[in-house]
Amino acid sequence: MIEQQSIENKNTNNSDILTTSLYNLRQSAGRLELDDHIIARIAEPKEKIEITIDPILSNGETAHVKAFVVRHNDVLGPAKGGIRMTNSVTMDDIVGLSMEMTWKTSLIGVPFGGGKSGIRCDPASLSPEAREIIIRSFTRGIRRHIGPEIYIPAPDMGTNEEDMGHVRDCIAYSNGTSITKGCFVTGKPVILGGIVGRREATGKGVIFTTLAACEKIGIDITKARIAVQGFGNVGMIAAAWAAKSGASVIAVSDITGGIINEQGLDIDALREHVKETSGVRGFQDATETTNNAVLDAPCDILIPAATQSQITKTNADKIKAKIIAEGANSPITPDADELLNRRGIFIIPDILCNAGGVFVSFLEYTQETQREQMTYEQVEQRLRDRMVEKFDEVYNYSLEKHITMRQAAMDIAVGKVVEGIYSRGLLP
Ligand code: NAD
Predict the structure, then answer these.
(1) pTM assigned to the model
(2) Average pLDDT of the segment spanning 194-218
(3) Which helix (H) or strand (E) holds 107?
(4) Lower Cβ count inside 10 Å, N or C end of the chain?
(5) Which residue of 83, 105, 157 sits with most ligand 1 atoms within 8 Å of its CB, as the best mutation to test the pocket?
């Protein structure tokens, strides 16, 4: 079978996100003894769209931008997954990330499938006007592929709440209506039907699962030292909530570099500094260091919350943390994963650890569909309950089967998608 061959042929030493996703799927398919025809169905996306947009920007220049939309699987519901905007994103990245979304939505128990979009351009190089033009142009280009029953985008690396507001407006404007019928996009501003607490949901979820892990392996959070790679939506909130839980955040990095203070960084002051200067570098009361030095800082808990393939076989041996909480998607390559497991480091896998965002997106989706309003406290309570419940489910399964947390999370998630395939029936 062609699809099966394509999984087998992927080189697991490569460090791209699709390779990691296919490697994890292949391992899980083996443990679950899945049939070849089922593996073929879930290894390949259901739909891949590549578009080119050439909008004229406000300075008179024409942009030439590639964009991708992938619906990996919709057996359990419409595809769900964010829009990534970076200058290097590829179709393969979006395929890998959409596959991760299929497992994440399945594991966290929301009625969605997996999808993802990518816009290949550097958001830092765009003026706010140019950025809005590109987001609107992208939305018009993929309009036929978005919908509450098809694919519902959200923010991811390089995009934010404001961008989702433009997506929502662009669709309503094209329809000639004030609102859309159902939820076309999540992570919108609250004033436009977004949900309170969505912005913080992924980072908070990372900390809820980290606290659960600390409890299992006997780490007192008030004595824990934490290092965070990436100080964007996920990393910044995770750092703030770690500090709020009593931990000491000693090292932080972003694309501009790293900073360290073994006595603990003032995260509120750091957030202000980043707001003013657009980076962590130059923060007072800290020593400047490299991004790599943050990964192997002398800490108890490491939160990679930047991008994929940051922990590889070349730096895995240097990591000192006892827990790694994967805020980012696929931050650890398969070979590094094996090395870390051998060293007994407790890894909270991405499809569990950073699933808080998609869980609260589901609350936004239901709130908009039912024209209801949830309070911040209700959202937080539901998020906390779901993250802890799913952490426990994965943890208990890993003990029962003598497998790692990643293996347990994958087997539960893949198993549910396969059950969905058989329940729907194999015929189209
Ligand atoms: P973001 O764009 O808000 O922030 C990314 C941060 O990482 C920035 O501080 C950037 O400077 C830093 N960064 C980028 N490359 C880096 C590098 N090589 N070394 C150090 N720092 C680097 O993005 P985000 O939304 O916080 O997403 C971060 C990760 O979390 C991504 O892998 C994303 O897919 C994943 N994720 C995000 C969400 C969400 O709700 N936003 C949900 C689930 C998973």
Answers:
(1) 0.95
(2) 97
(3) helix 91-108
(4) C
(5) 157
Pocket test for ligand 1, best of 93, 307, 326, 329 (most atoms within 8 A of CB): 307
Average pLDDT along the chain: 95
- Write down how long the chain is: 428
Using the mean position of ligand 1's atoms as its centre, give its distance from the Cα of residue 119 in Å.
15
Q: Are residues 214 and 100 in the same domain?
A: no
**Same domain assignment for residues 7 and 155:** yes
Of the candidates 344, 359, 381, which is a domain's last residue?
344
Burial class (CB in 10 A: 0-12, 13-18, 19+), 30: exposed
**Beta carbons of 405 and 398 less than 8 angstroms apart:** yes
Specify the CATH number for the domain of residue 257.
3.40.50.720
Q: Are residues 331 and 226 in the same domain?
A: yes
Q: Do 51 and 171 share a domain, yes or no?
A: yes
Residues in contact with ligand 1 by the CB-under-6-Å rule are 155-158, 202, 229-235, 253-255, 291, 305-307, 327-329, 354, 357
Instruction: Please give the torsion angle defined by the CA atoms of residues 147, 149, 155 and 156, in that order, rounded to the nearest 10 degrees.
Output: -120
Residues 86 and 212 in one domain: no
Q: Does a structural domain hold residue 287?
A: yes
Whether residue 104 lies in the annotated active site = no
Collapsing DSSP states into helix, strand and coil, what is residue 75? Answer: coil
Are the C-beta atoms of 25 and 18 separated by less than 8 Å? no
Question: Which of 358, 422, 400, 385 lies closest to 107 in space, CA to CA?
Answer: 358
Q: What is the mean pLDDT of residues 144-167?
A: 97
Unique residue bearing structure tokens 């083996």: 30
Residues 78 and 150 in one domain: yes
Helix (H) or strand (E) holding 421: helix 405-424
The mean per-residue pLDDT over the stretch 351-363 comes to: 98
Domain count, the chain: 2
Do 63 and 93 lie in one domain? The reply is: yes
Structure tokens given for 240: 């703030």
> Out of 10, 80, 104, 116, which one is annotated catalytic?
116
Helices (H) and strands (E) in the chain, counts: 15, 13
Domain that holds residue 174: 2-181
CA 22, CA 204: separation in Å to the nearest integer? 28
pLDDT at 15 over 80: no
